[in-house]
Amino acid sequence: MLIVANWKAYVEDLPKAKGLVAATRRAASRSKATVVIAPPPPLLGALAIGNRSRLAFAAQDISRTTGGAQTGESTARACMAAGAAYAIIGHSERRAAGDTNGIVAEKLGHALAQGLIPILCVGEKERDPAGRYLAFVREELRAALEDIAQKDRTKVIVAYEPIWAIGKHAKDAIGPHDLAEMVLYIKKVLAELLPGNSSARAQVLYGGSVEPEDARSLTAASGIDGVLVGHASADSRQFASIIKELS
Length: 247
Ligand code: 13P
Hints:
CATH architecture: Alpha-Beta Barrel
CATH class: Alpha Beta
Shape: globular
CATH topology: TIM Barrel
Bound molecules: 1,3-dihydroxyacetonephosphate
Distance between the termini: 8 Å
Number of domains: 1
């Protein structure tokens, strides 16, 4: 089980960040899950450099550039230097701020070139009765992966985050049945995009209103390999109980 904390911009000072890391470390030490924290970029290095715990760190986003005269950009290489092992790419909040499928693909390439493990976010804005959201998710996956070398595609973790379920509460998250169906669909699309039968090992996460109340029902029979947690990951008690629920 992979449990990823996307702190988004909920954490803005170092004492709070350090307290959250300590509480998360304690909860993770009682669990077999792999726990990854994605702090806001200015805090990443302060928390992740020299980290010797079982926790791993992620960048919330990386630049589409590789360096040079690019004021304000955090390149994949700089994120690695700051202690990240993973990078969230194509989050809907970055897509809303201008990341097209093409930009997401470029970022994915840079993450892989630097050895960051990409967590590629896909997900529809809404569920239409005609089922067009399936083609939308398929297109996001295809556009992100088609220019990536076959052997590198197997390193990508996919996070299914339906936009309509983000930032709400447990009762608004996707139902386990619909999630199981989507995980099957994503694995089917990955089987077409990944070499040989490597898609059987592909990891698929779910994100969107994961809270202590729904963590277990979402993961129990849906076939997901982990969760990507937003608001509840910035609350030490809630996140610790999510880790406990999934242990
Ligand atoms: P919430 O858990 O706040 O719904 O956010 C989900 C998300 O966007 C994680 O990346």
